[in-house]
Design goal:
Layout lengths: L1 E3 L4 H17 L5 E6 L5 H14 L2 E6 L7 H4 L5 H22 L7 E2 L4 H6 L2 H9 L4 H4 L4 H10 L25 H16 L6 E6 L2 E5 L13 H12 L3 E4 L18
Parallel strand pairs: 1-2, 1-4, 2-3, 6-7
Antiparallel strand pairs: 5-6
Length: 263
């Protein structure tokens, strides 16, 4: 087996299950393959390395920076995620094919889509289906809540880690996520986490505007003495010209509500 590995709770549970299954069957140990690109934060990369070591999964880091050259990525179309997923799965399968030619047994590629992901129609499902990538969690009907429960039972360090979709999801459709802007968003979110906002998003509606989302119950913390001033100083220093706080609070997938024209 080979696992498309991100270090999130889904792929970590899947990776651990693959390790345990291989041990029980005396089979070839599984591989984890992490697709690294400018859409990956440094924190996510370090986390993936640490989790792979913890669960005993051999990790290969595969350069996926070519996804930024995809037309759907440059235009940040609504189907960008599908094209990126297909690019990554194809690259991983190419790597596995090379290893097979070198004498290794053929490996089945698995990804961490769960039953909830399938229910909402995530773009990875379509790419996986087209390329023959298996999604055991989804196939077994395992929900996100069940993934976290099992991860706690196995004492995985990411059992309660907040979801961390790639940095490109912060950009309004139609706005190109350049490497420079991706790093700006990463640095801004890292600062917010250091300030104690563990769940946060920095949405980008233009190259120079930042719209901060934190859970609604934490919005009041921005009124604490010095917090607003510190955030503003940091964000302006990073290159944003305007910084706002979303009064609705954090909502996953909020960029799907409107296209680049505001419709």
């Amino acid at each position: 087996m080979a696992v498309a590995f991100s270090g999130g709770v889904d792929s970590s549970l899947l990776g651990k299950a693959a390790v345990l299954a291989a041990e029980r069957r005396g089979a070839l140990p599984p591989l984890g393959v992490f697709a690294v690109s400018p859409t990956s934060s440094r924190d996510d990369i370090e986390n993936a390395r640490a989790v792979a070591r913890k669960i005993g999964l051999e990790l290969i880091e595969l350069d996926s920076s070519g996804e930024l050259d995809l037309a759907a990525f440059r235009t940040n179309a609504r189907d960008r995620c599908y094209h990126c997923k297909k690019y990554r799965f194809t690259a991983i399968q190419g790597l596995l094919a090379e290893r097979e030619k070198a004498g290794e047994p053929r490996r089945v590629l698995l990804d961490g889509e769960n039953a909830d992901d399938i229910a909402v129609g995530r773009p990875g499902e379509r790419a996986a289906a087209e390329l023959g990538v298996r999604s055991p969690l989804a196939e077994l009907g395992i929900s996100k809540a069940e993934v976290r429960r099992m991860a706690r039972e196995l004492e995985l360090p990411v059992a309660d880690r907040p979801s961390a979709p790639c940095l490109a999801t912060r950009f309004l459709y139609g706005l190109r996520p350049t490497p420079r802007l991706l790093r700006r968003v990463e640095d801004a979110e890292s600062f917010l986490r250091a300030e104690g906002f563990k769940v946060c998003r920095v949405r980008v509606d233009s190259p120079v505007t930042a719209r901060i989302e934190v859970p609604a119950e934490e919005i009041g913390r921005f009124l604490a003495e010095g917090v607003r001033e510190a955030v503003l100083e940091e964000f302006l220093g990073l290159g944003f010209a305007a910084v706002s706080l979303d009064l609705e609070g954090f909502v996953s997938g909020k960029m799907d509500r409107a296209d680049a024209g505001g419709a």
